[in-house]
Task: inverse folding
């Protein structure tokens, strides 16, 4: 038996070089940038300004608004979760044509976010959109509402669109976990006369717990940093009404060209996500 | 409540939920199909499901006027490269994580999970600057490098768990037959890992296909991917060419949907990862 003693490290070299050059170095570079006043389109060298970018952000009422918007938008995670759990539970039942239904239910997962963003943009459209058409004809509204242009509706509108797009991911993870629960558990429970709710409460749920946690944490992190579908629907408007942190970073960098300040905003997003990552480490990666 | 009624009740509720979810998915998709097969002027009148005149005019316009055929080619190039490179770069470290004991293993894997949940909007600016220094902006390989920042950790995450779950005896038997550990991995483990490799290829391909954030910054018209072009159907004044947009939505959604349908059983197994046993 020949064992290559150093192979564990050798195996890492390509991935390590790549991740250092394109992930960790850029990240460190970005942190450096956030302490400098750097306007990308100007030829001047970036000037060191300490925490000014951060202080500016935290004094700015717009950035407070951006944080609030990001928080509300991230509640879409719970819509993802409820629909995903429902789908996983019924796809685990012995129904006819299960794999066809599973395929149809997962279409949203395989579809690009820009595509789903485009569809919802039409549904919510002020003049031709189908939502207005039905609500008006059923008598719920007296005149057409520009859902994405009216700041009192636009944030809810994009949150629901996220809810629609991302539940299949949750369903996939939970379904895989459900299928891993040994059947004997249920047979035993039936022998003891447990009803459906009790079986869910005392077998399914405990067995699903870690999968649920994984799905919730991942979706929460990804929803907090969501970008493209919002950009396709509203570009962050009207005004700041749908500007989540990611859009704020993007617009600050590529519309105002304030790279340093944009990165400081991004670090704030990272700080929101870090606690979730720690929970993930502590619970899921224990093993 | 006796057993029989409770069984029927359960069946009925399962089908009600199924019907609800199917409607939820199919309803918005039918809008896309309805809109893409009607002449433009019909779109800008009161909503109706069945086109008065059936036409593929919007598809032709999307392909010719908006050059979707060219951008879809770019997408295939960008996404396939992302998928293949992700596999090549992630297989060796995943195997190491799963099978080897070495210093820094825990820290290394934590760094992978961190990168998986990391807000990627943080990277667009520095990666843009770095690729510009390397003269790689506005090239498809530049896109690969940008996408791999996410797909490498993603692939390692899935593959490591798959390798962990393969019984060790398999390699041990092969090694007793005189193969080295690397040889056993290549000749025995890799062929057994087809489901996970397929799942990882699909998921990383999908990332390359779907990305807007990096691509919108790193490309111009020459290397633009199809998904980025979906943003081009709305004019600066806010007018949207809905018919052409919806035809393009179908163009970018159908290829991954078909791939998904073909690879479904692998992907479901690939997603089973994440869960500690």
Result:
């Amino acid at each position: 038996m020949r064992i290559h003693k150093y192979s564990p490290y050798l195996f890492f070299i390509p991935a390590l070089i790549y991740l250092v050059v394109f992930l960790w170095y850029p990240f460190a570079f970005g942190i450096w940038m956030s302490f400098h006043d750097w306007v990308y389109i100007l030829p001047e060298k970036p000037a060191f300004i300490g925490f000014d970018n951060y202080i500016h952000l935290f004094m700015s009422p717009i950035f407070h608004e951006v944080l609030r918007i990001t928080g509300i938008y991230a509640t879409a995670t719970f819509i993802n979760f409820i629909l995903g759990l429902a789908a996983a539970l019924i796809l685990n039942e012995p129904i006819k044509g299960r794999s066809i239904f599973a395929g149809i239910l997962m279409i949203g997962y395989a579809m690009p976010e820009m595509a789903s963003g485009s569809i919802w943009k039409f549904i919510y459209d002020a003049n031709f959109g189908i939502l207005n058409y039905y609500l008006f004809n059923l008598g719920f509204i007296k005149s057409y509402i520009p859902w994405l242009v009216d700041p009192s509706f636009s944030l809810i509108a994009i949150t629901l669109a996220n809810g629609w797009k991302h539940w299949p991911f949750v369903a996939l993870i939970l379904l895989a976990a459900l299928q891993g629960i040994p059947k004997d558990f249920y047979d035993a429970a039936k022998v003891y006369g447990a009803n459906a709710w009790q079986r869910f409460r005392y077998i399914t749920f405990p067995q699903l717990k870690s999968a649920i946690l994984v799905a919730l944490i991942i979706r929460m992190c990804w929803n907090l940093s969501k970008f493209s579908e919002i950009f396709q629907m509203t570009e962050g408007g009207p005004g700041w009404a749908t500007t989540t942190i990611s859009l704020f970073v993007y617009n600050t960098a590529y519309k105002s060209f304030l790279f340093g300040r944009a990165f400081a905003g991004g670090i704030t997003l990272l700080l929101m996500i870090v606690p979730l990552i720690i929970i993930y480490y502590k619970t899921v990666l224990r093993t | 409540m006796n057993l029989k009624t409770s069984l029927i009740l359960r069946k009925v509720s399962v089908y009600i939920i199924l019907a609800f979810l199917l409607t939820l998915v199919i309803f918005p998709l039918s809008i896309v199909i309805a809109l893409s097969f009607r002449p433009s002027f019909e779109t800008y009148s009161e909503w109706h499901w069945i086109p008065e005149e059936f036409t593929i005019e919007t598809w032709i316009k999307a392909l010719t006027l908006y050059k979707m055929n060219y951008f879809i080619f770019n997408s295939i190039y960008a996404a396939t490269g992302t998928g293949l490179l992700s596999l090549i770069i992630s297989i060796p470290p995943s195997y190491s994580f799963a099978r080897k004991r070495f210093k820094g293993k825990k820290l290394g894997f934590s760094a992978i999970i961190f990168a998986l949940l990391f807000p990627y909007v943080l990277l667009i600016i520095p990666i843009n600057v770095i690729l510009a220094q390397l003269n790689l902006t506005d090239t498809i390989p530049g896109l690969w490098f940008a996408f791999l920042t996410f797909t490498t950790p993603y692939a390692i995450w899935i593959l490591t768990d798959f390798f962990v779950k393969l019984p060790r005896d398999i390699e041990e038997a092969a090694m007793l037959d005189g193969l080295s550990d690397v040889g056993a991995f290549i000749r025995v483990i890799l062929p057994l890992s087809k489901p996970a490799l397929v799942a990882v290829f699909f998921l990383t391909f999908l990332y390359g296909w779907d990305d807007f954030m990096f691509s919108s910054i790193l490309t111009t018209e020459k290397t633009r991917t199809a998904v980025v072009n979906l943003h081009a159907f709305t004019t600066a004044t806010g007018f949207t060419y809905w018919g052409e947009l919806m035809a393009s939505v179908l163009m970018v959604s159908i290829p991954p949907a078909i791939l998904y349908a073909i690879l479904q059983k692998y992907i479901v197994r690939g997603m089973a990862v994440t869960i500690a046993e």
